[in-house]
Amino acid sequence: MDPRFVTKTMHAYLDYPVAFSLMALPFLLGLGASNPLAKWLAVATGVAALVLTIFTNHKLGIIRLLPYGFHLAVDMAVGVVFVLAPLVLGFKGIDAWYYWLNGATVLLVCSLHRPETPAMSVARS
User: Fold this and answer.
1) 23 vs 37: CA distance, rounded Å
2) Nearest to 87, CA basis, from 72, 97, 102
3) pLDDT of 1
4) DSSP one-letter string for 94-125
5) pTM (2 decimals)?
6) Helix (H, G, I), strand (E, B), or coil: what is residue 74?
7) In whole angstroms, what is the distance from residue 25 CA to residue 23 CA?
8) Residue 14 burial by CB count (10 A; 0-12/13-18/19+): exposed, middle or buried?
């Protein structure tokens, strides 16, 4: 049995709340104590995630120019960057945990993505 259950539609519904939380949570949690980049990296990533979502060819994309596969590749890259950021940029405490937890979550969601079969793609068009 294939454990991958995250569909393209499920992912689309997660994108907007995740983008807005990346912009808001650094302020609500008081990130940036160990390094100001801890706050601003998340905010910039949230803005980029919002733009990426708007331009992705999926159910909630507004201007559907970017292939969904590209969106997933960017998400994976963000997950890796978030896991490595505390080590590379010297984040400590909540700053580090915020990035480790978000990075691990993004990588987990991407790894649980269920690839669409050609029949599924045609049925949704």
Assistant:
1) 13
2) 97
3) 63
4) HHHHHHHHHHHHHHHHHHTBPPPPHHHHHHH-
5) 0.88
6) helix
7) 6
8) middle
